[in-house]
Amino acid sequence: MALSSSGHPATTRLLFSLLLVGSAAGLPERAAIDRVNRRGPSLGLVMSYVDEATALQASGYFQPWRALPFVDLYGRRYHIGSIRGVNVIYALTGQRRLNAAVTVQTLIDVFSVSGIVHYGTAGSCNDSISFGDVSVPRLVAYTGAWTWKFRSPRESSAELSFGEYNVPDGGGGENLLGSLKYRNEELYSAGKPMEEVFWLPVHSAWFRTAEQLTVELERCNDTFCLPTAPRIVYGLKGSSADMFLDNAEYRKFLFQEFGVSTMDEESAAVVMTATSPGIPVIVFRGVSDLAGGEPTWSSTSLMNLASINALKVAVEFIAAVGKHSSTASVKR
Which first-to-last residue range defines the signal peptide (predicted)? Predict the structure, then answer.
């Protein structure tokens, strides 16, 4: 092996130089993160679609921190600031399960985060909730994990048999697609053995706080007005899967078999990622479409209204949590 003039192997010297360069390149981000964390704990606020982030940016609720308005990590921008005097770090996750989980895990691992607030839009699977309403689910599930079975009779309610949807002979005939049996998730939690679960609960104390909120929701956007005033609906069930649901029959199946009221692509991943280390988490989803089968309404025309309403509830919740934390600190 060739030696340098100092007696060290040349390859070792080169490696050491590369390590120095890598460390120097990482210093600005590390210093920025430390600076953000010295402000104290923040609430993590995450949304999935650009329209949902646009609603926040246009609202004026979020006040950027002048000293350091954002930190870029792993291709995502984490915005530093406050809402109603409460420290907040918000990020656009991108769509579907993996993007949501990676973004939330980064928030938890890198920043001093006291909880995760998730808001966005959803399709309705329950005819009792309609456009512009905001669902605050107590339970969410990932309904995109299946065991695909071939020509076997239906064994349980947690199973979709394609033969029941045959046309024109629907009602239980044989179908070469067989059936789908829904699978549980493997939940790994700090200090506990792995457990298989189907339903994931949001944080119970946070849910009780949300139940006390009084928020006047928007009925109109720039192009459309709803026939009735939207409302906040508490305690329903939500589901997520890595697909945009636009199928009336499947929407009905989810409601009939699981009691699911809203369908989205990220909520279950957000709740599971936060639940594993024991971080409080809550979900607010505004209804933008019927998840398939709506005859005259357009989800695109109502997307921003649903985003705005979900955001309004999330903002009032953040203010309430901040007030409770401040009161508790004074008492201590």
Answer: 1-26
